[in-house]
From TrEMBL:
PANTHER family: DNA REPAIR PROTEIN RECN. It comes from the Bacteria. The gene is recN. May be involved in recombinational repair of damaged DNA. This is DNA repair protein RecN. Belongs to the RecN family. Keywords: ATP-binding, Coiled coil, DNA damage, DNA repair, Nucleotide-binding.
């Protein structure tokens, strides 16, 4: 299912007070008397897809002009994904787009119920609609669009070499970026390598051990307080076991007191099991305190004041602290930094070799890209020649027999994502004229016909689902007008087509005929849009042919046109 515009509501735009356009998936035509507001339909569509907001278009007496469009889109498709990315909502495959323009010139836009910048509508329009009007910027006039359309026109012949080129181009770009990074930052990388070498030499010279800083901190504490530690251990030992140098009857120690307590309880333990348990616990306490006292004595003998060792420990801690301040939070972190630094230094020291490897690969890829780009150019040149001939033939049938369209290919000096070719569509208005860019080689009316011819030739290759043409038949009549209608109908086989026309020969080919009707109420002119049935179409075509809706001759001619168009479709 291809996206399409299902319905458009216009309010307060030019002479249109309020109108609803119900559009078919195929060929839609909009007609009406001069001044009825046909062009406002195209203007409304332009606003809906991000066109310039002109406050002069707001209907006199109205506060604002508004346009709302209902689009049928493919769930999960590119457009649906873009809407979801900005937080818009899609219900049952339908997307609502709204745009308002105030009389003061302020413009607001909504997409899927969410307020968005107008530029978002313009971006979305690239995948939805192509507007071809005398005052519009044409989508296919953009160089990138022209190249993309030509590539699709070239078809399968271009697919394989373009895929190969794209892969080579991506790798070429990666290699070039790596080379630039290695060469332009050579000085910074050399400085980084020097700093890493200096740091590694410092670490190697100090040779720290994991957890060494914590161990040295503890040793320094012990050495700095050796006298206090020995005194505390001796005092504690004396309190537990007593001082053998003191006379009997001196201060009583913990072991003696525990012994007395145990002896008192042991004497009566057999009379109560609960007291017996306490006696056992007193015995255990005695053993435990004896062990502690023994350890305290050993500790007191082992603690010695060693000024030389203390100085060595303090000096080692100072050296380690210097490393830690520079490279990590502790000695283990310094060792981890050194490991990482060594790996990074290995990378930096291998840069010269890496540069040589990348340079060779870059040169090989450049040769490969040149070959692939030349293949792309040949395929495009062949497609461009076929395309130019096809469009020129279409222009002959569209009352431009002397016009000629060519596709000019020029090569840029640099490789691009799609090759080195720059594509530009050009037109020569007559045999003696040089081919000029489309905007310079054709007038407004001619340009619409040229774009119609291009779109017809590109039909199926260009993925845009909706085309809008305004005054595509300007200055044309008779057989050429029939050919325009026939080609619009042909384009409508693969896309939705909306055309504003004043020619009955064009209108007869439409699948859906909308007429802009003008009503005058005193000094106020209002217009609305009506969808015509078969009888309505006959009357409207008769008016367009003879100027009178009920002319028998006009009605007969209108029926003939409708029959001719139906048979041709």
């Amino acid at each position: 299912m291809r996206p399409r515009v299902e319905e458009v509501r216009i309010q307060g735009l030019g002479v249109i007070d309020e109108a609803v356009l119900e559009l078919s998936p195929g060929f839609n035509v909009v007609t009406g008397e001069t001044g009825a507001g046909k062009t406002m339909v195209v203007t409304g569509l332009g606003l809906l897809f991000g066109g310039r907001a002109d406050p002069a278009r707001v209907r006199p007496g109205a506060d604002r002009a508004s346009v709302e469009g209902t689009l049928v889109i493919e769930p999960g498709g590119r457009v649906a994904q873009q809407v979801e990315d900005i937080g818009g909502e899609i219900e049952d495959g339908e997307l609502i787009i709204s745009r308002t323009v105030s009389a003061e010139g302020r413009s607001r836009a909504w997409l899927g119920g969410r307020t968005v910048p107008v530029g978002t509508l313009t971006y979305l329009a690239d995948d939805l609609v192509a507007v071809h009007g005398q005052m519009d910027q044409q989508r296919l006039l953009q160089p990138a669009r022209q190249r993309a359309a030509l590539d699709r026109y070239a078809g399968d012949e271009l697919v394989k070499p373009l895929r190969a080129y794209t892969q080579a181009y991506k790798r070429h770009k990666q290699v070039a970026a790596q080379l630039e990074e290695l060469t332009t930052r050579a000085r910074e990388r050399a400085q980084e390598a020097d700093l890493l070498r200096f740091g590694l030499e410092e670490v190697e010279k100090v040779d720290p051990k994991p957890g060494e800083d914590d161990e040295l901190r503890g040793e320094e504490e012990r050495l700095s307080h050796a006298d206090a530690l020995r005194s505390a251990a001796t005092t504690a030992h004396t309190a537990l076991l007593g001082d053998p140098m003191e006379a009997a009857g001196g201060a009583r120690d913990v072991i003696s007191l525990l012994g007395e307590a145990r002896a008192a309880v042991e004497a009566v333990r057999d009379f109560d099991s609960q007291l017996a348990g306490m006696a056992d616990r007193l015995a255990e306490a005695g053993y435990l305190i004896s062990d502690v006292a023994t350890d305290l004595a050993a500790y007191a003998e082992s603690v010695e004041a060693d000024p030389a060792r203390l100085a060595a420990v303090q000096e080692r801690r100072s050296v380690l602290s210097s490393l830690i301040r520079k490279y990590a939070a502790d000695s283990s972190g310094v060792l981890a930094w050194a490991q990482e630094a060594a790996a990074r230094l290995g990378e930096l020291e291998g840069d010269d070799e890496r540069i040589d490897e990348l340079t060779r690969e870059h040169d090989e890829l450049t040769v490969r890209l040149t070959e692939l780009a030349d293949r792309l150019t040949k395929v495009r040149e062949s497609a461009a020649e076929r395309f130019g001939k096809a469009v020129t033939e279409e222009l002959t049938a569209l009352a431009m027999p002397h016009a000629r369209v060519v596709v000019e290919l020029t090569q840029s000096a640099e490789f691009g994502p799609e090759g080195r070719d720059e594509v530009e569509l050009r037109m020569a208005a007559h045999p003696a004229a040089p081919p000029l860019p489309l905007t310079k080689g054709a007038s407004g009316g001619e340009l619409s016909r040229v774009m119609l011819a291009i779109e017809v030739v590109f039909a199926g290759a260009d993925p845009v689902p909706t085309f809008v043409f305004d005054e595509v038949d300007a200055g044309v009549g008779g057989k050429a007008a029939v050919e325009i209608g026939r080609r619009l109908a042909r384009l409508a086989r693969t896309a939705q087509v909306i055309v504003v026309t004043h020619l009955p020969q064009v209108a007869a080919f439409a699948d859906q005929h909308l007429v802009v009707e003008k009503a005058s109420d005193g000094s106020i002119v209002r217009s609305g849009v009506v969808t015509l049935d078969h009888e309505g179409r006959v009357r409207e075509l008769s008016r367009m042919l003879a100027g009178m809706e009920d002319s028998e001759l006009g009605r007969a001619h209108a029926e003939e046109l409708l029959g001719l168009a139906a048979a041709d479709r």
